[in-house]
Amino acid sequence: MDLKELSSVQLESAANMLKAIAHPMRIAILSFLEENATLTVTEIHERLGIEQSTTSHHLGILKDKGVLVSKRVGKNTFYSLKHSNLSHIVECVSKCSDFTGDD
Q: Which CATH code, of 1.25.40.340, 2.60.40.10, 1.10.10.10, 1.10.155.10, is assigned to 9-97?
């Protein structure tokens, strides 16, 4: 798809998703979900090593901007990537952060 084919609504949505992702903890969350498909809030906060309330805050932002979806099962909420293509963003950012400038 050519950038010229995107509507202003689609561009705004994409920008909002990228803004939501643009945080070290949120990139880490996406990376965990890329590896594991679905995780609970508890599993994510234990992997991040931060407070559960902080983890929930980050998950809420990602969900609100259309990056994640959640499913409640009993007293657990499971999070996953809304679109599998989002895993490519983590891969791309990872490769770009390894850039040494030796081209």
A: 1.10.10.10
Query: What are the distances in angstroms from CA 52 to CA 31, 45, 49, 79?
Result: 18, 5, 9, 14
Phi, psi of 81 (to 5 degrees): -65, 135
**What is the per-residue pLDDT across 77-92, written as a single tens digit (0 to 9) for each?**
999 999 877 777 777 7
Longest distance between any two alpha carbons in the chain, whole Å = 52
What ranges do the domains of the chain cover?
Answer: 9-97
**Three-state secondary structure string covering 1-56:** CCHHHCCHHHHHHHHHHHHHHCCHHHHHHHHHHHHHCCEEHHHHHHHHCCCHHHHH
Work out the pLDDT band at 39, boundaries 50, 70, 90: very high
Per-residue model confidence (pLDDT) at position 63: 96
